[in-house]
């Protein structure tokens, strides 16, 4: 299910109107309407606030729509890989990865997110996903995804994220500390 569909369903399950959600989020009703129609996304800070206020994981809220896959021929690999994300203190066994589209936010905010998809059973919300890391640029995200897909296809059992950004969290705001390019001198 898409972010827009997830948000709309969750809002309705909570018995909230668009106006009520807009008030909680300190945005206009039109902004909530755009999010639910799929014609826009909230800023990173608002995504975190949505997750918190609706009491749902960011993974579940964003799992399907912002999931983009790179290099479709490697999607068919059936192996799994254990991915560690030292910046987020996460270890997850996945059979594929998905990434967000470009998220709204300032130049010092993360621009993309990466999710691992596990082999657990699907639920109402879709396949089980785990948030793996934030990325400063599409280039770094693409490098990471391509390397993970190659590792899965080669049957490599583990992979440690190399290009994810370090972020500093203050309340619901995030700021890039390290953009994550481990190849820089």
From TrEMBL:
Q: Which InterPro entries match?
A: Cro/C1-type_HTH, Lambda_DNA-bd_dom_sf
Where on the tree of life does the source sit, at the highest rank?
A: Bacteria
Domain HTH cro/C1-type per the UniProt entry, residue ranges = 7-61
- What is the name attached to this protein's record? Helix-turn-helix domain-containing protein
Keywords of the record, alphabetical order, are: DNA-binding
Name the residues that span the membrane.
none
By its UniProt entry, which Gene3D superfamilies does this protein fall under? Answer: lambda repressor-like DNA-binding domains
Q: What is the lineage of its organism?
A: Bacteria, Bacillati, Bacillota, Clostridia, Lachnospirales
């Amino acid at each position: 299910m898409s972010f827009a569909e997830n948000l709309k369903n969750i809002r309705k399950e909570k018995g909230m109107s668009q106006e009520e959600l807009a008030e909680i989020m300190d945005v206009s009703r039109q902004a909530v309407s755009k999010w639910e129609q799929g014609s826009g996304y909230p800023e990173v800070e608002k995504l975190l606030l949505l997750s918190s206020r609706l009491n749902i994981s960011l993974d579940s809220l964003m799992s399907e729509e912002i999931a983009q896959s790179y290099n479709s021929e490697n999607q068919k690999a059936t192996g799994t890989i254990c991915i560690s994300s030292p910046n987020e203190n996460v270890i997850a066994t996945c059979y594929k990865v998905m990434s967000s589209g470009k998220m709204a936010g300032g130049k010092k905010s993360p621009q993309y997110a990466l999710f691992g998809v596990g082999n657990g059973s699907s639920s109402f919300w879709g396949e089980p996903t785990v948030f793996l890391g934030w990325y400063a640029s599409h280039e770094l995200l693409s490098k990471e995804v391509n390397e993970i897909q190659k590792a899965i296809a080669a049957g490599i059992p583990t992979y440690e994220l190399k290009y994810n950004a370090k972020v500093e969290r203050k309340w619901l705001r995030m700021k890039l500390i390290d953009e994550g390019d481990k190849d820089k001198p």
